[in-house]
Amino acid sequence: MTNELEKSKPRYRYLILHLLCWSVLIIVPLFFHSSNDDWLVVRNRYLRWLGNPLDYMMVFYINYLWLVPRLLLKKLDWKLFIFANLLVITVGLCLVDAWHWCALKILPEVNVDGPRRQFIRFPRYFWAIMADILIISLAVAVRMYQRWQHIEDARKEAEAARAEAELSNLRNQLNPHFLLNTLNNIYALIAFDQDKAQMAVGELSKLLRHVLYENQQDFVPLCKEADFMRNYIELMKIRVTDNVKIHANINVQPNDSTPVAPLIFISLIENAFKHGISPQGKGEISIDLNQVNGDITCEIHNTCYPKRENDKSGSGIGLDQVSRRLELMYPDRYSWDKGKTPDGQQYYSKIIIKKES
User: Fold this and answer.
1) Prediction pTM value
2) For 168-353, which CATH superfamily applies?
């Protein structure tokens, strides 16, 4: 029902616009007359002139409703379109002449005292034909604009549907990707510390609630996403040694409701733990999340160690997903600066999501 109402709104707007334009054309001439003319003179002349706007309406709507959409837009037949309009103009001129003749019989000319304004006179048919050509051009322009607007609306609707489908596909990919990485971490823990592995399973159950439910929404409150990041960092700490220095500064208020795409930063944290720890169990990881005046900043630094060939901690698709999701959900509202330091010892990643204006 709502969709039908939304679709009918443009029709009502067009109807009101048409009524307004024709009302102005028909009514305004009543106010342009000589101060010497009394009401009877003004009325008789106006009623005789009224045949002209009726002719314009006929010419306009024959083109607007039939000739332009069928002959120009559909068949692209200019010759038939011109021939049909010549016929329409001829019929219109005959009807205007008939209107004037009838009006003169019913409403004879009233004598007017005083001087009358003189105008340069051209043949009446010349002005009538010029006016009809202008009306036809207007009908073509209006129809062409409406067609362009319809095509543009359809394009935007198709783009929105495609973007939504792509985002849904990315979310569906992210869940198993995240779960696979976390299970690989727990698998690695089982080999050397079963107690920590049990703790990790408990932490994982908390995270899965967020992944399974919150990730199905387009946006979640920043405070919930911050809690998820804290829990994930705690889970990752279980598997690393004391030689890995982890600095986590999640500076987000507990009730911060700023909307953010779920799991948008988690792949960056995964990447930091995957590449920031050496085979000897050493490394340094720094994670900062802040929200200032509606702008969200996530900055991560970690030592850089090449991934080992037998490392099964992930498939490497996470960062590509982050990039695509940022493009789809925050077009022209984000910046992402990432790369290695000049000495190649550290990797940095900084995402700024700007407040929607």
Assistant:
1) 0.53
2) Histidine kinase-like ATPase, C-terminal domain (3.30.565.10)
